[in-house]
């Protein structure tokens, strides 16, 4: 049986996210998994020709930022659920959104092979989490990310 990804349990609006919504046909449709339950997460994604920066075989920095954003916020949400003792395999009862996103581009990222992002939560506050990540291509570290994810409470609640 295929392994369940974090994004497979998002439905409704969450499943339409451009970076990670599994029901957005125009989006990146990333899939995130535990590398180590409750601690580290992993996402592997294959770039397509249209994701190029101006040079052929160099991945767009904006796409890299989106990959890091979505994988990191998904990680924050799943770590929050894990810490609260909830199963993460059904629609999440808490939502995190991006408060800040910082990307450091270390090397051009090639597009001929999949990129892999590994993330972990390095600081936990009552309402916010700091998620640090590394993006690799062909086993080389090409970018680093730092995302502040904040628990989102709709105004109507
Ligand atoms: C905005 C509507 C979003 C609708 C939600 C829909 C979908 C959610 C999406 C995804 C969830 C599903 C899967 C995950 C994957 C996808 C990732 C994509 C996510 C996005 O693409 S989403 C769009 C871009 N995103 C925004 O559109 C945010 C606009 N913005 C705001 O909505 C507010 O700005 C908010 C909520 C961020 C904070 O507002 P707030 O009132 O809750 O914050 P508050 O003041 O209470 O702070 C609480 C603690 O966060 C710290 N804090 C706050 N802001 C900070 C910052 N910028 N940097 C560092 N720390 C910060 C404070 O310092 C305090 O920290 P401490 O607790 O330690 O004092």
Automatic annotation (TrEMBL):
SUPFAM superfamilies recorded? Thioesterase/thiol ester dehydrase-isomerase
What GO terms fall under cellular component here?
cytoplasm; membrane
Q: Reaction catalysed?
A: (5Z,8Z,11Z,14Z)-eicosatetraenoyl-CoA + H2O = (5Z,8Z,11Z,14Z)-eicosatetraenoate + CoA + H(+); octanoyl-CoA + H2O = octanoate + CoA + H(+); (9Z)-octadecenoyl-CoA + H2O = (9Z)-octadecenoate + CoA + H(+); decanoyl-CoA + H2O = decanoate + CoA + H(+)
Q: How does it sit in the membrane?
A: Peripheral membrane protein
Does the record bear Membrane in its keywords?
yes
The EC number on file is 3.1.2.2
Localization (cell):
Cell projection, Ruffle membrane; Cytoplasm; Membrane
Entries under CDD domains matching the protein: PaaI_thioesterase
| Top-level class of the enzyme under EC nomenclature | hydrolase
Limits of the Thioesterase domain:
57-140
Signal peptide residues are none
GO function term, MF aspect, one? hydrolase activity
Q: Does the keyword Lyase apply?
A: no
Q: What is this protein called?
A: Acyl-coenzyme A thioesterase THEM4
- What is the organism of origin for this protein? Ktedonosporobacter rubrisoli
């Amino acid at each position: 049986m295929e392994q369940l990804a974090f994004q497979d349990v998002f439905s409704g609006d969450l499943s339409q996210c451009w970076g990670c919504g599994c029901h957005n046909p125009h989006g990146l449709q990333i899939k995130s998994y535990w590398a180590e339950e409750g601690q580290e997460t992993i996402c592997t994604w294959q770039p397509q020709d249209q994701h190029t920066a101006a040079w052929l075989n160099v991945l767009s920095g904006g796409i890299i930022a989106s990959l890091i954003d979505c994988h990191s916020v998904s990680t924050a949400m799943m770590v929050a659920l894990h810490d609260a003792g909830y199963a993460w395999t059904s629609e999440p009862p808490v939502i995190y959104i991006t408060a800040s996103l910082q990307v450091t581009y270390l090397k051009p990222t090639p597009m001929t092979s999949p990129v892999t992002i590994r993330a972990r939560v390095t600081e936990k506050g009552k309402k916010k989490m700091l998620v640090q990540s590394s993006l690799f291509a062909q086993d080389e570290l090409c970018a680093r990310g730092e995302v502040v994810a904040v628990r989102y409470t709709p105004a109507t609640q």
